[in-house]
């Protein structure tokens, strides 16, 4: 069985919804899945200043946290983050910055990796956020699997991003069916490639 870790940071819940859908799709595709969040780093004053942020923080505060052991366990990794000035959120980046030991030991080599995001505006940093995450995966010696345009859902009006599923919070009333279709396809594709790679490497 292919092991998949869906690791995300979400402030107001949009990335969380995508992560839940990704985990469900990966499980449906036959993977053993762990849905994990990274710790919140923002001060309570910032969280409480935004109702949606405070609500989501309270609802998910007891959900499991990602650890480095989860990265070792996983054959495939799906990372989700909102955009912060065209970059991944500090919360996810801080977790990634703790992986130096695993990288040095070669334990992230050949992990299949894909990522997704949410921004406030169309083209408000989706592509640059996902490409910034890819910089890490190059260093890890991981195998990046984007959704590309390998499924018709990628041509839907609110998708159209070949780098990874991207939700636009400022112009949509929550994560819509097109976004869910995109993340479900991305998760299935990630599992498919990870499974094929795992079998091939084991056979070799």
Concise account of the structure shown:
With 204 residues, this protein is an alpha/beta fold. It is 44% helix and 18% strand.
Describe the structure.
This protein is an alpha/beta fold. It has a single domain (3-203), classed as Flavodoxin domain (Rossmann fold). It contains eight helices and seven strands. Strands 1, 2, 3, 4, 5, 6 and 7 form a seven-stranded mixed β-sheet that branches. The longest helix is centred in the C-terminal third of the chain and has 27 residues, at 177-203. The protein starts with a strand and ends with a helix. The model has no long low-confidence stretch (mean pLDDT 94).
Name a few traits of the molecule.
about 200 residues; about 45% helix; 8 helices
Helix-strand string = EHEHHHEEHHEHEEH
**Helix content class:** 40-55%
- Number of helices, counting only DSSP H or I runs of 4 residues or more: 8
Write down the Rg: 16 Å
Structural class: alpha/beta
User: How would a crystallographer describe the biggest sheet?
Assistant: 7 strands, mixed
Write the layout of secondary structure elements.
Elements: E1 3-8, H1 14-28, E2 32-37, H2 44-48, H3 51-60, H4 68-73, E3 76-84, E4 87-88, H5 90-96, H6 100-104, E5 112-119, H7 126-140, E6 143-144, E7 166-168, H8 177-203
Parallel strand pairs: 1-2, 1-3, 3-5, 5-6, 5-7
Antiparallel strand pairs: 3-4
């Amino acid at each position: 069985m292919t092991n998949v870790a869906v690791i995300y940071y979400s402030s107001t819940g949009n990335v969380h919804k995508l992560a839940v859908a990704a985990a469900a799709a990966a499980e449906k595709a036959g993977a053993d899945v762990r849905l994990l969040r990274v710790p919140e780093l923002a001060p309570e004053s910032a969280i409480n200043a935004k109702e949606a942020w405070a609500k989501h923080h309270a609802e998910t505060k007891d959900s499991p946290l990602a650890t480095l052991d989860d990265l070792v366990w996983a054959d495939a990794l799906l990372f989700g983050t909102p955009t912060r000035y065209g970059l991944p959120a500090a919360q996810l980046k801080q977790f990634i910055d703790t992986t130096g030991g695993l990288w040095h030991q070669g334990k992230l080599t050949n992990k299949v990796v894909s990522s997704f995001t949410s921004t406030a505006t169309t083209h408000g940093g989706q592509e640059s956020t996902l490409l910034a995450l890819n910089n890490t995966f190059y260093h890890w010696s991981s195998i990046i699997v984007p959704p590309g345009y390998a499924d018709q859902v990628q041509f839907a009006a609110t998708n159209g991003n070949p780098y990874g599923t991207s939700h636009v919070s400022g112009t949509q009333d929550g994560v819509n069916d097109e976004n869910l279709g995109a993340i479900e396809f991305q998760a299935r594709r990630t599992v498919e490639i990870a499974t094929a790679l795992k079998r091939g490497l084991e056979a070799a």
